[in-house]
Design goal:
single chain; 138 residues; mainly alpha; 74% helix
Length: 138
């Protein structure tokens, strides 16, 4: 018996591919061709999101094993929206560039939960016993 339907696996693969392709167009040009004036944090963000894009490509092949990549996407975008974008919106200080980021993050916060196999996550990340803290002696 399969734990996750074929449809859900393809939905996961499509989500990984969307992330990989989206970041390929948005982030990789800045990684491959940047100038020395790029700020430290902008470089860090580009490198981190570049790594996410490569890991998302692995998710196309191994959709269940790479679920932590989708959880990372969901969590960081939700945190950013709540901790940074929401206060700006509530104080009417939202500029067009921030609003663009809001829409990009909202897209991920909507799509990723639809794609995630919540029953599988519950069984394998909540109910399942964690790994032992020390290696058993043989």
């Amino acid at each position: 018996m399969h734990e996750v339907s074929t449809f859900r696996l393809y939905l996961l693969r499509a989500t990984y591919l969307l992330i990989a392709v989206g970041l390929a167009f948005a982030i990789w040009p800045g990684i491959l061709d940047h100038d020395a004036s790029m700020t430290l944090m902008r470089g860090v963000v580009h490198a981190m999101l570049g790594a996410v894009s490569l890991l998302a490509l692995l998710g196309v092949r191994y959709p269940l094993q790479m679920i932590p990549v989708l959880l990372f996407e969901l969590v960081w975008k939700t945190l950013w929206l709540l901790a940074f974008a929401l206060p700006l919106w509530l104080s009417h200080q939202m500029d067009p560039r921030t609003m663009e980021s809001v829409f990009e993050c909202l897209l991920g916060v909507v799509i990723v939960p639809i794609a995630l196999p919540w029953g599988y996550l519950w069984r394998h990340y909540v109910k399942k016993s964690g790994d032992h803290w020390r290696r058993a002696t043989t």
